[in-house]
Amino acid sequence: xxxxxxxxxxxxMGMTNKKSLKCEQHLGHNAMYWYKQSAKxxxxxxxxxSLEERVExxxxxxxxxxxxxxxxxxxxxxxxxxxxxSALYLCASxxxxxxxxxxxxxxxxxxxxxxx
Amino acid sequence: xxxxxxxxxxxxxxxxxxxTVKCTYSVSGNPYLFWYVQYPNRGLQFLxxxxxxxxxxxGSYGFEAEFNKSQTSFHxxxxxxxxxxxxLYFCAVILTTSGTYKYIFGTGTRLKV
Lengths: 116, 113
Description:
Chain A is mainly beta. Chain A has no helices and 11 strands. Chain A is globular, with a radius of gyration of 13 Å.
């Protein structure tokens, strides 16, 4: 176990549904990340939060909405998704975020999302 | 464009033989390089990193990687492969530009032992 948990592990939703993915880290880290992993494509960084503030939003469609209520929890709210959004969504954390701290990231097991 | 490349989609190696998983990078400035492994139904797991110093970096599970600045490579190696090493391996580089700090991952190499 890496100290990062994600729920649910699997999610099937229709295009008109609203759902949320949850991530929790038990490592005392200050930075949290959402990634999208699709087959045969590089991991796509979606959002970065540092000390509960969003510091990066990499051109992600507005149908994905992140929320970081505290440094241990990260949510990804989903609404009106498209079938091409089906992927493995990974949450990660690191001790710090910033150019002077080249920390490794600790990943959760991911949520396998299928959009019908 | 700054990037990291893993030229092989899959590497096959016999148990007990040495293994190499290749990674090349293209970044401006100093590269900060990482290797991660992903087992089935799991998230990525950190193996090792090169930030500065000795070009040979040792990591978890007997893996090591050699930073080669002239060849812009950071290949992952292990002297003797185990069946349990079968997994998906990702090389990553940190880009730092204008105060932002971004991980760029390669497309992954599947290792089959």
